[in-house]
Amino acid sequence: MSLFKKIFSKDKKENLDKGLEKSKTSFMSKMSKAVAGKSKVDEEVLDDLEDVLISSDLGVATTIKVINRIEERVARDKYLGTEELNKILREEIAGLLSETETGEAANIQLPDVKPYVIMVVGVNGVGKTTTIGKLAHQFKSAGKKVVLGAADTFRAAAIDQLQIWADRTDVPIVRQKMGSDPASVAFDTVQSAVKQDADVVLIDTAGRLHNKVNLMNELSKVKRVMQKVIPNAPHEVLLVLDGSTGQNAFEQAKQFTAATEVTSLAVTKLDGTAKGGVVIGISDQFQIPVKYIGVGEGIEDLQVFNKYEFVDSFFKQ
Predict the structure, then answer these.
(1) Which residues are documented as binding site for GTP?
(2) Less Cβ crowding at N or C end of the chain, within 10 Å?
(3) Which is an annotated Pfam family here (predicted)?
């Protein structure tokens, strides 16, 4: 089908297929059981399919949308065989994501803003700092001048980890000692980026969610202080979610979108889990584009998310 155009390089598509292998295998196993001995898509098959989609972490709301779409096709086409179900699912889920996700597939190209400031948020342990490091590598490989800001000052490990990525990717980092004011670090970072004529700034932030009011106040302060140097900063707020946590990733998305204005998402750790369906649910439910997905530990394994390639890999037979 034309929706599933091949825009990835062969290597990246193979990495995506490999990264989603556990999710795909788990889903296909459940699907096989759901349609075993059935030849026609009827009410019983749809009930079983609903259970499969929910247990594959698409979430209840997205699952209901998908089932409704398939019911409409059954009513329209009068007869649909179970052998067609996988193809229909691919088409309907890709169509659903096309409607709810803004824009086309993200790419590493930056808007005509310099420096372009990305504030990265997410709870501790989701792969936030690693995502920043991999993004720094990708931007630098694309010929961009990058500056990192270590504004997660509540954990010495976070500052040290970002320093390791700065050294590994050979990009400058602005840091202060543990316990420093995160807004002060952010201010120094954007100021340094302007002086260096940098193209992109990546600001790490603390990931504490136990008190949403404090988190909201802290992130608001970081924004206000950066805007003293660059009026519209940050230009992007990227929320990093751990895909391996399944439905807990939905809860984190709810918490952070309530605490700050999130404009894009990155879903990590998809290679080690069978919960890849969470990407479909999150991209549908939050009306915020999934921009990147993590499908491996390698520095190149943070991929730009393309809904058609993702759906193609997830339902590949």
Answers:
(1) 122-129, 204-208, 268-271
(2) C
(3) SRP54
